[in-house]
Recover the amino acids of this structure.
């Protein structure tokens, strides 16, 4: 088998965003596009020769083809062994688990997460490092820099590998192990949660749940876990077959895109728990019977109840949340006397805190929750965490959430997304807000008084690296906040995200619809940023 050195020309647009390189499929299908980026990864890693790489994706269109290309490139670049998901299927959390358990030098995960798939949808490549987590900024910057000068890549001339069932193959001197990743992932979950207690709950006849895998990667994991191992009836998992176009849906577990699940949980004879995950299985949305659990609250509730879960009952080192995530978890951390960290958006910022043992749990408002068990957020882990809490407390999701608010107060929270707006106008909106910073403090906006306004900057407490311009914040004297950010994962124009938060300590005032509780702040945000003028939109695309 020959190793080919192929001449290529660089592409100017291979800068990874919040979570890897994410582009339309048609962009990835350009001649040499994928190869350039993959070669740039190898060229910027030290000492990986002879070592193990983990590879797989969320099953979206172009996944299998990309895997075959990457296998041949890995062989040509001297990788010792590749562990690849059977049928190309590997959820992001399972990939993180496999990287850690096999001391791999890293992993390549093919996913555009919650973005739509299919020939007209998106594709993505994420590189994870040896701790199992997303490559930090210095690594992604080096990969991007390399992609700007690349002029050749290496590829083994070889036939495609059969990915359809587990097995072992040779590609040149490299070994390819095709693995069913459900097993190692399940084992890890069994080590953290009380499976007997959850089994009892799911077979008691009094508790029903519905898991929506949205025709994305979690289907096989969820069926094996909930229906086979934990005794839930067949049919508990819906949309469980991974499809290349996710059945035409948008595999984003929120109230808009997971509307089928929402209709079930808010309909007649609703189950007790509903959960959905995203394209690559790292997100989770938790619903109770006619009840939505805000992801920021979910992090706080998980933190407050972690002592009920075997893997966490020995205590938590600390908790971290992304800046736009509500401050609900901060209140629990204070009560528990543990550290609390506020990081920029994106899971990669949690890696150092987890590695240094500063935090045990992490979460983002964008339906992401996870812990030190891996270095990614983990959708099914969050479902198991909730099931374990429900089983241990014998209470409904609504009871658990409302009693949490009674103890800690309620952080009313909402996020409003304006998707695919004109990019220049979105940047203008952000620039205008930034230029208004000096005159903001002390200003009255409606009944609120501005305490501070800034562009969030983060200094990593472990390695001292600094991430600037991570979102415009307007903080009010009563602790309420409005945050504006532009998405780093969208592929069409710009996506403006507006995050709103207020705090209600009074137990008698905690059962409002957040849209009503936050109505004044929503109006202030619209006015201060002139959202209609700059986005040309009357209302957001998605409200959470
Ligand atoms: C979004 C979320 C962010 C998450 C990321 C990857 O990024 O807001 O919390 O880490 O997807 O799942 P954004 O599009 O806002 O840059
Ligand atoms: Zn995802």
């Amino acid at each position: 088998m020959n190793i080919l050195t192929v001449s290529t020309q660089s592409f100017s647009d291979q800068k990874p965003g919040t979570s890897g390189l994410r582009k339309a499929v048609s962009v990835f299908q350009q001649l040499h596009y994928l190869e350039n980026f993959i070669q740039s990864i190898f060229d910027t890693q030290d000492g990986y020769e002879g070592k193990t790489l983990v590879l797989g994706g969320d099953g979206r269109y172009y996944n299998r083809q990309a895997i075959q290309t990457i296998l041949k490139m890995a062989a040509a670049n001297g990788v010792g062994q590749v562990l690849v998901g059977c049928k190309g299927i590997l959820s992001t959390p399972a990939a993180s688990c496999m990287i850690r358990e096999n001391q791999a030098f890293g992993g390549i995960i093919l996913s555009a997460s919650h973005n739509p798939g299919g020939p007209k949808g998106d594709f993505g490549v994420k590189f994870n490092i040896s701790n199992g987590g997303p490559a930090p900024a210095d690594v992604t910057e080096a990969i991007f820099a390399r992609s700007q000068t690349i002029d050749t890549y290496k590829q083994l001339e070889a036939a495609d590998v059969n990915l359809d069932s587990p097995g072992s193959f040779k590609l040149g001197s490299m070994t390819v192990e095709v693995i069913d990743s459900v097993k190692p992932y399940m084992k890890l979950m069994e080590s953290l949660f009380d499976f007997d207690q959850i089994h009892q709950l799911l077979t008691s006849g009094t508790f029903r749940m519905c898991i929506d895998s949205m025709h994305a990667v979690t289907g096989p994991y969820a069926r094996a876990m909930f229906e086979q191992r934990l005794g839930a009836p067949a049919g508990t998992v819906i949309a469980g077959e991974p499809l290349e176009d996710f059945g035409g849906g948008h595999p984003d577990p929120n109230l808009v895109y997971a509307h089928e699940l929402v209709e079930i949980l808010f309909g007649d004879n609703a189950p007790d728990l509903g959960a959905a995950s995203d394209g690559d299985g790292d997100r989770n949305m938790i619903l109770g019977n006619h009840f939505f659990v805000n992801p920021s609250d979910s992090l706080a509730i998980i933190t407050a109840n972690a002592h009920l879960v075997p893997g966490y009952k020995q205590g938590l080192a600390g908790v971290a949340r992304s800046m736009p995530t509500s401050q609900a978890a901060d209140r629990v951390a204070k009560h528990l006397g543990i550290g609390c960290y506020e990081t920029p958006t994106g899971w990669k910022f949690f890696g150092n805190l987890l590695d240094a043992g500063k935090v045990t749990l992490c979460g983002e408002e964008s339906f992401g929750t996870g812990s030190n068990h891996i270095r990614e957020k983990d959708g099914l882990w969050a479902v198991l965490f909730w099931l374990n809490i429900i089983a241990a407390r014998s209470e409904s999701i609504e009871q658990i959430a409302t009693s949490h608010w009674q103890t800690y107060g309620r952080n009313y929270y909402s996020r409003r997304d304006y998707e695919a707006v004109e990019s220049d106008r979105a940047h203008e909106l952000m620039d205008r807000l930034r230029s208004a910073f000096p005159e903001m403090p002390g200003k009255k906006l409606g009944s609120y008084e501005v305490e501070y306004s800034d562009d969030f900057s983060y200094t990593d407490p472990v390695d001292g690296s600094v991430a600037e311009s991570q979102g415009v914040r307007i903080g009010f004297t009563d602790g309420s906040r409005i945050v504006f950010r532009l998405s780093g994962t969208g592929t069409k124009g710009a996506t403006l995200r507006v995050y709103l938060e207020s705090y209600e300590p009074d137990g008698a005032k905690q059962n409002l619809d957040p849209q009503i509780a936050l109505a004044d702040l929503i109006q202030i945000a619209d006015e201060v940023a002139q959202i209609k003028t700059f986005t040309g939109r009357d209302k957001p695309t998605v409200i959470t």
